[in-house]
Amino acid sequence: MKKKLDPSAFFFVLILIGILMYVVYSNMNYNTILSFTDGMLKEALKDNEVLEVQIIQNQQVPTGTVQVTFKDGTKISYYTSDVNETQKMVEKNADNKVPVLLHDVKGNTWLERMLPYIFAFILVILFLSMFGRRVQRGGGQDSLSNFGKSRAKKDLKTGICFDDVAGLEEEKQELKEIVDFLKDPKKYTDIGARIPKGVILVGPPGTGKTLLAKAVSGEAGVPFFSISGSDFVEMFVGVGAARVRDLFSDAKKNAPCIVFIDEIDAVARRRGTGLGGGNDEKEQTLNQLLVEMDGFGKNSGIIVMAATNRVDILDPAILRPGRFDRKVTVSRPDVKGREEILKVHAKAKSIGEDVNLAEIARTTSGFAGADLENLLNEAAIFAAADNRAFITKADIDRSFIKIGIGTEKKSRLVPEKDRRLTAYHEAGHAILFHDLSEMDPVYAVSIIPTGADGVGGFTMPLPGNDNAFRTKTMMMQNIMVSYGGRIAEELMLNEISTGASADIRSASQIARAMVTKYGFSEKLGPINYETDDSDQVFLGRELGHERYFGAEISKEIDAEVKRIINECYEEAKKILISRKDILEKCATLLLAKERISGEEFNALFDDENTVTSENTYTSESADV
Ligand code: ATP
């Protein structure tokens, strides 16, 4: 399709043709009356009531349809077993006053016959035109034949080196070997070593996998072909495989080079899960990828790097030696890593004196590199919007809330009753965060609605440490904090609201996971009782997952979940009853200020002498 065809023009033409077809075929708007007969028509003709008669003969048989238009505008049709008889009868009784038209079903006019073909032709042209545009957009070339061409981006010089990747020292060390292979393959081949063909980078989103792959290419000074696994996935069987072939043929011409496949799980998912019908295409694409990787000679200079955050769903065939035989795990940065990443991204920005990167690093546990980059970027946007040339701590704080919770919708009008309810609700959460030993301290409490639907306010804790594991005590306390909002509403307003639905869901999920996944229930023991969850169904592999326990166990699980929840609820209620005055003070402050900082919140406890159950609740105190 060399010419650019405008689809909107086609839609216009289609509508025109539709109208035309309606007009031409509108003679079909006759009301079929099965009980009507030639005899009745004869009567009507005699009474001079008929305006026109059309007799439509079915092809090559004597039967047909008679369409009668009466003078009063009524249109009826009926079936006749012999059109010739009917015609004779009409001619005899009409006295030449009524026109009689005889057709066969093929249609009379040229237009009537051709319209369906014209319509189909235009549909095909329209489809091809849109299809061509899609190819054009994806491939950047103006030709349909490029559909099977790879969509890889080629970067002759990434310009990124290991110094641009902060932290990740072990990962960089592992990859330095690959850089060396690419720079001086002879050193390895001379001694008979087999250079690895593929490296798979595994880690959560935004941890710098792409950045690392680019750095390998930059350090080795070789071209970088990058493509996302989802770019191979097309509606048409065989297109993905063709793209893989094309990508590798391009790479071979540019060897030594790096081929980077992001989100490889989109194509390399375990085969034979039979999910979603589009499987043939994916299997063909994966097979082609394996064929290509096996195909290029031992030391052809192409290193395929791939990234995924779900190595567990990958087809084992791709992890076999000779394919992706190196696995590098890229984890979320620790506090030192975070500080280094912040330093890298702060380089290009003007940072105010009150901003302490080490402190930000301490309070962003769980953040990946991309989150940190985003944190500084959002802060820079706030600063620019305020017409400032540098970023202040306040910008970072706002950005932190925006990333964690969503943009605050200050202009949204909230009825006073809802504000009060939210104020007690959030105060309930915040007090439990404060009082429970394993919970992080409060960073901010707010009753300003945020972007998330139905979120009337939020209590944001300050991520305190980089714990890799969660203990039973932590999980119980998490459940207690979740119920804090509901309990506060109940205690202070003697009313409960739908605002706690998300809290209830998360508390129930934690309690169930404690019993079925982590073996925290003494009654059920350390046994995995998990069944399908939607996440796994989505990923396909576990679709056939069965429940390996009976109804009795299922009942016990439910009972245990309920017991944990009840215990946590009661314990949380005890704490909040003893903190009623703080609940009141906190809600009043929130209603006045809308958002309070962690310091303002903590100050509410300063003149508080009552010793409460502070920091005493652990899983030992509950009989779980
Ligand atoms: P995904 O799994 O979503 O593809 P990824 O792991 O490939 O993510 P990248 O795309 O490499 O993550 O990282 C996103 C951005 O985060 C980078 O462009 C960079 O700005 C920043 N980033 C992540 N990790 C680091 C790091 N270690 N040092 C510096 N910047 C980093």
Give the oligomeric state. single chain
> Average pLDDT value?
79
Residue share in β-strands: 5-15%
Helix fraction by DSSP (H/I, runs of at least 4): 40-55%
* Count of DSSP strands: 14
* Main β sheet profile: 6 strands, mixed
Poorly predicted runs: 1-5, 135-144, 533-544, 609-624
The global form is: extended
> Tally the helices: what do you get?
20
**Cofactors and ligands present?**
adenosine-5'-triphosphate
**Strand order, biggest sheet?**
6-8-9-10-7-11
For the record, give the distance between the C-alpha atoms at the N and C termini, rounded to a whole number.
Answer: 69 Å
Helical/strand content category: alpha/beta
Report Rg: 36 Å
Overview of the structural elements:
By secondary structure, the chain is of the alpha/beta class. 47% of the residues lie in helices and 11% in strands. It has helices spanning 7-25, 38-46, 83-94, 110-139, 169-183, 185-190, 209-220, 239-253, 279-295, 335-346, 357-362, 369-385, 393-404, 416-435, 472-493, 501-516, 534-539, 551-578, 580-593, 598-603; strands at residues 31-32, 50-57, 64-70, 75-80, 100-104, 153-155, 198-202, 224-228, 257-262, 302-308, 326-329, 442-446, 458-461, 595-597. The strands form 3 sheets. A 6-stranded mixed sheet has the order 6-8-9-10-7-11, with helices on both faces. A 5-stranded mixed sheet has the order 1-4-3-2-5, with helices on one face. Strand 2 (50-57) and strand 3 form a beta hairpin. Helix 1 packs antiparallel against helix 4, helix 2 runs parallel beside helix 3 (83-94) and helix 15 (472-493) packs antiparallel against helix 16. It is extended, with a radius of gyration of 36 Å. Residues 1-5, 135-144, 533-544 and 609-624 have low confidence and may be disordered. Bound molecules: adenosine-5'-triphosphate.
